[in-house]
Amino acid sequence: ETGVTQSPTHLIKTRGQQVTLRCSSQSGHNTVSWYQQALGQGPQFIFQYYREEENGRGNFPPRFSGLQFPNYSSELNVNALELDDSALYLCASSLDTNSGNTIYFGEGSWLTVV
Amino acid sequence: QQPVQSPQAVILREGEDAVINCSSSKALYSVHWYRQKHGEAPVFLMILLKGGEQKGHEKISASFNEKKQQSSLYLTASQLSYSGTYFCGTPINNAGNMLTFGGGTRLMVKP
Questions:
Q1: How far apart are CA B74 and CA B94, in angstroms?
Q2: Over pLDDT 70: what percentage of chain A?
Q3: Which of 39-58 (A) contact B at CB < 8 A?
Q4: Residue B85 and which of A10, B11, B71, B76 are 20 to 30 A apart at CA?
């Protein structure tokens, strides 16, 4: 139990639709990162938010966007869904952005695009 | 660039030892190790920092060779609960914790 909660747990969307995934960070953590994990692969970094600002972004197209709120919870939005977007989406929170600080993953949101 | 893990898969008997390796093509400031069981989220095991500091799991040990840009995870006297996929993650930017992960090492411990 990491204290990082994500919703929804599972969802099915149609190609071309939009989806919003939500994440509550562990208490006291001001940094949230999002990862995409396809079946059989390691997590791929999407972006990180620190104190409500985007702190860094991986190699994902602009249709992947996010927000962080004053309470440090976060949303991941994906527009114009494609079949390849089917994956486990993981939210991770950390105390801050320092490389010595652990990132703790939530249970993830399983997205299936049909 | 993502780190490279070896081996890709290991099968052990309970009580046997295993070593999982993680190597990077660039200088490392930290290495983060996680274990993921099927259908679950990755669980933090250990962080190794440049300069020798370690934080993490009491029953798992690891090494970090900054010069060789490598880290190894040592699983001794393995238990059934050690089964899962092990990932190492290294910072995309030197000073941060935005991580790029290796492809994983699948470990199966049999009775």
A1: 25
A2: 100
A3: 41-45, 48, 55-56, 58
A4: A10
Tokens in use for B82? 């050690």
CA pair distance B73, A87, nearest whole angstrom: 27
Per-residue pLDDT tens for B47-105? Answer: 998 877 777 766 788 999 888 899 999 999 999 999 999 999 999 987 789 999 999 99
C-alpha torsion sign, points B91, B97, B102, B105? positive
Of A6-10, A63-67, B27-31, B83-87, give the lowest mean pLDDT range. Answer: B27-31
Amino acid type, A71: N
CA distance B97 to B46: 13
Q: CA of B62 to nearest chain A CA: how many angstroms apart?
A: 16
Measured between alpha carbons, how far is A14 from A17 in angstroms, rounded to an integer? 6
CA pair distance A81, B95, nearest whole angstrom: 33
